[in-house]
Amino acid sequence: MKKNILSLSFVFLTFFLSYLHAQENNYNLLPFPAQFNGGEGQFVLNAQTKIVLTAKDALLKPVVLSFSNTLKTASSLPLTLATAAPATAKNVVLVRLNKALGLGTEGYKLLVSQDRVILEAATPQGAFYGIQTLLQLLPVEVFSPTPVANVAWTVPVCQIQDRPRFSHRGLMLDVGRHFMPVSFIKKYIDLLALHKMNVFHWHLTEDQGWRIEIKKYPKLTQIGSKRKETLVGHYSENYPQKFDGKEHGGFYTQAEIKDIVKYAQSKYVTIIPEIEMPGHSSAALAAYPELGCEPSKGYEVATKWGVMKDVYCPNEKTFTFLQDVLTEVFALFPSKYIHIGGDECPKDAWKQSEFCQDLIKKLKLKDEHELQSYFIKRIEKFVNSKGRAIIGWDEILEGGVAPNATVMSWRGTKGGIEAAKQKHNVIMTPNTYCYLDYYQANPANEPLAIGGYLPLEKVYEYNPTAELSADEQKYILGIQGNVWTEYMPTPAQVEYMTFPRASAIAEIAWGPSGPKNFEDFSTRLKTHLKRMDYQKVNYSKRILDIRAVTQFNNQGQLQVRLEKLDSDSKIYYTTDGKAPTTSSTEYLMPITLDKITTVKAITTAGAKFEEKFFIHRAKGKSYTYANPPAEGVDTDKKKLTDGQVAQSPRNNSEWVRINGKDFEITLDLGEVRPVTKVSTNFLKIIMNNVFPPNSVEIGLSRDGENFKEAIVQPVKYQLEGPWDILPVVADFKTARARYVRIRAKNAGPAPEGHPSAGRPTTIAMDEVVVD
Fold first, then answer.
1. pTM listed for this prediction
2. CA dist 152 to 43, 142, 156, 697, Å?
3. Which of 331, 485, 632, 706 has the fewest beta carbons under 10 Å from its own?
4. Cα(729)–Cα(731) distance, rounded to whole angstroms?
5. DSSP structural state of residue 758
6. Is the dihedral of CA 80, 84, 86, 87 positive or negative?
7. Between the CA atoms of 439, 443, 449 and 450, what dihedral angle is there, to the nearest 10 degrees?
8. Please, what are the domains in the chain?
9. Which residues are 551's β-sheet partners?
10. Angle, in degrees to the nearest 10, between helices 518-534 and 182-194
């Protein structure tokens, strides 16, 4: 990216970057520094370049050697390490400690001139982050694991003073659902370090697997680390659910954990282990049933996802067990914090337990929520007695939060805001911005994920201190991305879901508060992705995608607007069914369609797009509901006539749902017109309690009151089987009408044997096509 920047802070820098192109220097840094000044010219590294580290700065030797070795590997330059150099020495990279720098323990100062490079920091950690910036100033080939020829090894002239906004800049990885090998855990830590992130939250225990060796309780790994099989497809994809019949297991020995902790320390990454309690404990209960409220039940390691009703019983055996486990965890992890979970703890077992009900009375508690608070507070007291502190998910606020606990806010931002107002430390990780297991593009074209939709640009817009006063903001320790692995069975899939969205989180966590420029970020990101290419990261390329949005012009014509995040590429498209090339029509304005058309497009960056748009008499027409959907769903009444037909059961946003009632709409064509056919689609996701209607009545009317020419059709489908999209079509030969009414009869309560037996079912419908 071409920039010439003079004394601009990050806040104003991001606003102006895209306009300043006078200088031929590249500053594609990510995360971008807090304060940055560009300049003219480059520092050139060659065979005579020396890296200077004096004896008094010996603490920096590991950091300097890491930089030197990385550069040597890629460039083959015979870089030498010198212990002294004259103040006026040229062609040197000088790295030194400066405790008076005033940039904190993680800050650094980097000065690059045509003669020399000077990196200063108050601590080795600050120097480490300065080295990451220096590496990013070099050509991307510096990240190559093998020598690269014909590269000019230069660093653009600049002045940087940098320090992070937040002390907690983290990524979580769930290895309970799917075990990940040690080699990948180290690679994950490498990627954190590349992004100046400093916390690896390691989710080690789950219903589906216990992944940490505890010597005092060997059954945790002998039994708890293995599940007999795993759910096939999405949780709601098949009814009944299907399983693969293959055992899945794995755990980390204490020796492996010690090695990983040491490795992380070399990258200035702190590992915070998570031992879940009192919920998400099926694997532990399978190993030691006496820890549950019903030991004779026969607990098993969970084979499917979701929230399990079996949880730890708050008896003395459980507390002894957890204290023993945590004691061994303390010995492995030197981190100040231990994450104890505290989320998604159903109270069913406690409500049915005579022991728990007696304990509630004995402790004079109000209910089971206060019993959970008692549980967490008791664990916290033990953890505090060992000089550590707990982190818990925001459910620990229920029933009264433990006095010294740090809250990790995941259910949106509300829990974090509430905790900060109560003067509790908070780490913001709301699912609305930070859950990297959500789809990042059109679910129909993406690998299977848990659901939701979180594109890169939405992640980047997040401000962790929004809605808080200046005094309350000081309780926000930082931000974290969460990677839950229900649908990520391999390291490659974890990488695909995590990056580059984690790159956006890293920049939010590091850079000062203030306006952010996504276009500038995406430009820098494209260079950053080339660095990750050399590290063989299977990141998502969705930043290059084309997306379609429909709109209607003043004449009521359907227009297709093609959008992309990549501002540097061009779009070329066709509407005649042929494959587009760079000789096709360049996209410059919305495409107006007057018939059913398949739009195909490509970009010069290599992205492809294809979608069929339906032009029919009902497109853009208004309609009314007899039973309106839930608040916030289809509020502008456009989704059912927007010309875009739902493509997949995976994408909730494409469908309009009405729960427990008939789905009835009346559509106004605006005038009496010929109508030969009316069609629509219904969704079948039986596991999710979304049932097709029993029958559909489609009627026509000229006055909106008398619907005489109604066609009633039963909807035939098999209850068992995979999710599906079911079309309903009514053929009218020579009818004329202004109004079209569709009445879809609700299937009634879920049948016996269904997980939601007796509860109301939902109808989901999409595009109404009128020909």
1. 0.94
2. 11, 11, 12, 72
3. 632
4. 7
5. T
6. positive
7. 80
8. 8-162 (3.30.379.10), 168-513 (3.20.20.80), 545-613 (2.60.40), 623-770 (2.60.120.1190)
9. 559
10. 140
How long, in residues, is the chain?
A: 771
Residue at 357: amino acid letter: Q
Dihedral angle sign, alpha carbons of residues 420, 426, 427, 430: negative
Report how far residue 140's alpha carbon sits from residue 148's, in angstroms, rounded to the nearest whole number: 11
Smallest Cα–Cα separation from 648: which of 617, 683, 623?
683
32-70 pLDDT tens trace:
999 999 999 999 999 999 999 999 999 999 999 999 999
Convert 300-317 into a string of H (helix), E (strand) and C (coil). CCCCCCCCCCCCECCCHH
Report whether 771 contacts 677 (CB < 8 A): yes
Cis ω for the linkage preceding 278 (within 30 of 0): yes
**Please, what is the end-to-end C-alpha distance for the chain in angstroms?**
51
Quote the tokens at residue 253. 């020995």
Distance (Å, whole) CA 531 – CA 524: 11
Copy the structure tokens of residue 278.
Answer: 């009192």
β-pair partners for 700: 740
φ/ψ (deg, to 5) at 122:
-80, -20
Distance CA 337, CA 274 (A): 9
pLDDT of 389 > 80? The answer is yes
- Residue 235 carries which DSSP code? T
Residues 447-497 have pLDDT tens digits of: 999 999 999 999 999 999 999 999 999 999 999 999 999 999 999 999 999
User: Which structure tokens are listed for 369?
Assistant: 């929520």
Residue linked to tokens 């009633």: 712
Residues 6+ apart with CB under 8 A from 569: 544, 603, 604, 605, 607
Do 662 and 710 meet the contact criterion of CB atoms below 8 Å apart? no
DSSP code of 744? Answer: E
Cis amide leading into 31 (omega within 30)? yes
